[in-house]
Every structure is written in C-alpha cells, then in structure tokens.
Amino acid sequence: MKLYDWIVVGAGITGATLAYELAKTGFSVLLLEQDQTPQNATRYSYGGISYWSGTTPITQKLCQEAIARYQILAQELDADIQFRELDLLLTIAADSDPEVAAASYSHLSTPPQLLSIHEACELEPLLNKNAISGALTIKHGHIHPEKITQAYIQGFLRLGGEIQFSQVLEPTQIFTAEKSFRGVKTTTATFYSANIAICAGGMSRKLLKSAGIPIKVYFSHAEIIETPPVDLRLRTLVTPANLQRFQLEFKSTQVDKLWNQSCEPVPPILDVGAVQFLDGSLRLGQITRIITDPHAQINSEESEKWLRTSIMHILPDLAHLPGIWHHCLVAFTKDKLPLIGKIPEFEHIHIFSGFSSPFIFVPPLAQRFAKFISGQEDDIINQLVIRNS
C-alpha cells in the first residue's frame, strides 16, 4: 500500500495549482480528478485576473504577488498560458447614474476610469450605445483557463506527482477513525495519505457533508454559451459594472439551514458579459442560479434563449453566433474570502476552496499554503485559517 503525504481532490485551477506547489515543496502528492475531459468551473470561466481589485491589506498584497507570479509562470511551467493584458469594460445600464457606478469602485486599490457612452463605444465598437449610460475601464489580466490548469498539472507530473482519473464515491468516500482522515475511496481504488486537501469547487460542500463534516462553502450553477473561433473581433472583456452575482450569493447564505434541503432560495440573475480568446472563440454569459442540489437539471433551451436575448441588448453582433450552452458549479463563501486550512476538530483533512476570483488569489495562496504546512509561518494563511475555527 502506497502512502502519500497529500491527496488533493479536484484538478481544476485550485487543485492543480495546490498539487503543484505541494510537490514543489517536496511532498509526495496524488491528484484525484473524476473527469479526463474537464467539466468544471475552470473549464467554462472567463480567465480574468483582477489584480487591480484589492480592497484590504491582505487582498492588495495577494494581488501584487499574483502580478509578480504571472510574470514568470509561463517560463517556470514551460508552457504558453496566454497571459496578457486587455481592456476590461464595465458597462453601466442606461437607467443608471454613471457617477454612482464609478463611486462604487472608489474603495479598490486601483479604481477604474469612467467613460462616456462615446468613449466606451470607441473602446468597444460592438457595444450597443443605446443600452448604456457609460462604462468603466481598466487594464485587466487574462489567461486561458484550460491552458494554465494543464500547465500546472504537467509541471506537477514533472516533479514526480501522480494523477488518477476516478470519481470519489458517496457517501463513504473518506474513511474516518476517531475523526482521523487517512484515505479516499474512489470507483477504482482506495488511496491513502497523511493529509487530504479538498479542492473540489462546487462539489466541496457535498463531498464533506457525506463524510459528516459541515462546512460553510456554497455553490451556484453558472451557465454560459461557448462559440467556436469566429472572425468577429471583440476588443475588450465586457461585464456589468453592477455585478448581481455577488449580491445573489450573499442573499443565498443568510439562512444556512436551507442548504440542507433541495430548494432554490433566491431567483436566478443574468450578468451580461463576453470575452474572446486568442483563437477567436468566445464565452458569453452568464446566468447564475442558486439551487442547493448540485445535480439539479436545468432547462438549457430556456437558459440559452435568455442569454441570447440579453446579449442582443448589449452586444447585438454576438447574439446569434453559433455556440453551445454549458453549465457548471461555482464555489463561493459568504464573505468572498476562500476557506483555507485544516478543518477544526478533524485531523488530517484540509479545505482549499471557495475562491470568488481564483485566477488572482489561487497562485499566491497555494504557494503560501504549501510553505505554511511545511513549517514556515505565514501571516496571511494564519488569518484565513483562524476564520475557519
């Protein structure tokens, strides 16, 4: 029986990055992932890196570390992660006051610049000028989500890490002995380790609950349309200045007991946005639903119609492009800070999940966490771990 230092559950951007950093620190690591073809939130994300959006000393420091990390990451991982800067355009609805919208961003480390309707349409000619009262803009980091995840996984494997594609079983996927977690049972085998890190994104809550561990990490159902490469060119990354998703997430966590039953505690919202990758493909979205059943069935035809109708209003040239509707789970927490560290009262099991902005916070925090559990003190990890107790 092989015993690993760490088993990392989940190979999206969170699990892949953490597995790499643990292996780089010298630990023997097994990475478990159920899908050889990813269907997770990383796969369907925009890939934005909001390193301008720090609001506290902790988040500002992590943003600075992320900028530095991305400058060297492609070379370190020996891979093209398509890291670049592009203009982020935060659209302001026609019935909203642009000055009020701008003021709502004034607390950020680098507030975006307010643009008139004319200036916004010069920056992004595909915008419908009649749908906005203005926009905000700032330089925004961007990578290809799948390419960076695969780059981390390949770097992890070069360091001697191992990966197994196998689904973790329910409800006894984690064996306990006096609350001491030592193994993970999957559809193909049982694997053993000194420590386990749950990086399963939107499935983290259910995975831990099935083992008798209550945890306040939640999930939403996100829906987008993905197009094949097209000749049409979107110059910017477009998203609303008033992002309803965060308000929806907060409202859904006010009565935690609702998450112990199958329900939809709040109505869905749609934040109209779009991004184009270097190959010309686009991701258009996004609908966010709070349904407490991670396996809930969603009417894809109605969702796609809602998405396309809303996109037609803001970016009319994109509304009828050929594309496929996709759905995934997105993890979040009540205060938008991730859950990191050992779960209180349970030995050997850790959580590393609930990142509202994974591409900005995961790389620096994974690096810090790996050093922290190897014995190096870390002021930021200490603060995030304390809030879990």
TrEMBL record:
GO MF entries: oxidoreductase activity
Taxonomy, superkingdom: Bacteria
GO cellular component terms given for this protein: cytoplasm
Keywords: Oxidoreductase
InterPro entries associated with the record: FAD-dep_OxRdtase, FAD/NAD-bd_sf
Residue ranges annotated for the FAD dependent oxidoreductase domain, each copy included: 5-370
Recorded coiled-coil stretches: none
Name recorded for this polypeptide: FAD-binding oxidoreductase
Organism listed in the record: Anabaena sphaerica FACHB-251
